[in-house]
Arginine decarboxylase
Amino acid sequence: MADSRILVAVPKHPQGEGAGPQQLRMIRDAIETAGFEVRWAVTAEDADAVLRTEAGLAAALVAWDLPQVSGDGPGTALAAPARSFARTGRTLDGTPGGSAVLQRIGRRFKDLPVFLVMADEGLGNLPLWVSESVVGYVWPLEDTPGFIAGRITTAARAYREAVLPPFFRALRRFDDAHEYSWHTPAHSGGVAFLKSPAGRAFHDYFGERLLRSDLSISVEELGSLFEHTGPIGEAERNAARVFGSELTYFVLHGDSTCNRLVGHFSVTRDEIALVDRNCHKSVLHGLVVSGARPVYLVPTRNGYGLAGPLSAAEIAADTVAARIAANPLTEGAVSPLPQYAVFTNSTYDGLSYDAAPTARAFAASTPRLHFDEAWFAYARFHPLYAGRYGMSMDEQTFPGQDRPTVFATQSTHKLLAALSQGAMVHVRSAPRAPVEHDRFNEALMMHGTTSPLYPMIASLDVATAMMDGPQGEWLIDEAVTEAIRFRQEMVHLRRRIESAGDRPPWFFGVWQPDTVTDPLTGERLPFEEAPPELLRTEQSCWLLEPGADWHGFPGLTEGHCMLDPVKVTLTCPGINATGDMAEEGIPARVLTAYLATRKVMVEKTDSYTTLVLFSMGITKGKWGTLLDALTDFKAFYDADAPLERVLPEAVAAYPRRYAGLTLHGLCQEMHEQLRSVRLVELLDTAFQQLPQPVAPPQHCYQRLVRGETERVRISEAAGRVAAAMVTVTPPGIPVLMPGESVGALDGPLLRYLTALESFDRCFPGFRSETHGVIIDDGTGDYLIECLTQGAER
């Protein structure tokens, strides 16, 4: 942390005349001599800019009488105190500009040492909260510059050390010891790489520090990932505190391993598990390992083909009991009562549940509840998501004997700042199904590795520290704010295009409410005209109202489901949320192919929607570039530009198919194909009308590894039993599970797969990625893995 900086926010310019500025310059020089950089600010606005952009601050020196030039600066909404008038040093309500800076620091940093510069004011004139916000007071002319600078830099060094979380701190100390390595890995801190040209290039690219921190589990002073001792154990306990759990475990193979681990622990062979059909394939892998018998719950879907939540009716005890009774796999189960339920929260498209009523509904059926929160690790750290995540289920929110044990599995790396594959399992145990650490740890060791990557552990530790205290809310709030700005700008741009009259009046939409209600006034506002402060703080603005056309999901109840503002779904012309198709349309695959040529890579593409994520790494420049690319696509489409100009790589790869075609022509051909085969409708039907279960997933896996399966063309697969799942990806949601019947040739699944096969043949280069489907290179036929005849039982 050699680049640590100290903010000096005083109303005097460092080049000013007089004893005051001279003394401050000498303090600055002494701070810099001690090895710190100084960021000088002479107004509250200047200080705010430093606070927003300098995460490496180690201390601050703030003058109480700091001027605040205007109330319109970027930090005003957070920094508080009203508007100010020019250069008075006070806001309109008489509050000094330094007050705003102190409040901003309190929202941005956890325990940053702040020294308050005083002029003639006495301490008795300060508000009481100020003494809780600072570590000391400075009268510049009453002590020597070296003494004052020493107080500041000493506090900065202590903060710099304290800000490091447990494991990362220990890892840095171990690295600084420069010990010789006599253990694995064999590259010995990167030295082995230096003995080969390719290895040297690898070493130079990643750097010595990363390789020196790639250590063996034999390093006792860093603790054990399986014994949960030392700094690793301390880091996990710290994560439990920050994420609000009783137990937290670091997992180094992503949320996929977390799901397998929790499923393996929670349900055993021939026990019943309730599974959200909108689940990730790793949930099924957990059932394969455990030998459980799944009973699937069916989520809602809308006209765009987006998977919605499980409705309140779907998870009600009587509905669950009816699904269990109707499922052939439950005959002969250990118990007719399920032992475990798992559902996705939030969904890939940003839909989260009201956790307490959802947990109560599930609790009537099962003692263990698993929130798969792969995409929702940040929910605890912003008030907008209050009560929408698994670890909010404690004795206060769900009192009484019926409370289930709750697991929350999170891909920390997805939308928090951890390295790829970094993940966590959070546990809140309940008396109905207590989780003993030693028993859970046995399952963890079965799915973990004895050769962990220490930088990944450190990244989980640091991701935790980043969310600890006010800084966590600040980081998530920034992402929420930028997403709201983008959403509103998209609507404003569409309105301008519609009213311009000089171009075709269409533009891409955003999947969100058309209007919102201010709960304080009851006023209904167009979304784009709503105050950003309302949208970033009021959860009701994002709730899916029952029956609203904009979302298109049937059967929702009040407050059940919320749209996450940071997951932005762009909609293309051609279809709406209720499934009505237009004469013309722009399939999203064409749009995302163009965006890729502009180096804009999206998260997910469906038939007429594409998903972009506003993570903590978002910037105005990043979403401004996306906005520009969308307007350029519209210009190309409206001008009927040659495809060679818009998608040159597609034309070069398939000249016989696309040469001479225009962008408008390609979009229309693709839209008409999707319309004629009714692909979106077929997908919806395939998800809603579940295939008939024939054999448990574990049985199918056993047959697969013993070679008792075969690949069958979908044109010949009617009546066969799937041996492997068929998964539409992204987002990785299965349409066919192992052990399920493929159904009739004119049934929902084969009709959908046949339509998909036809689309892929017709539009090479734009095919979907469907795991479990093998494409015959010679014919383009779809093949799926099925049990051989007679191997169903």
In short: The CA atoms of residues 355 and 388 lie 5 Å apart. Residues 470-500 form the longest helix (31 residues).
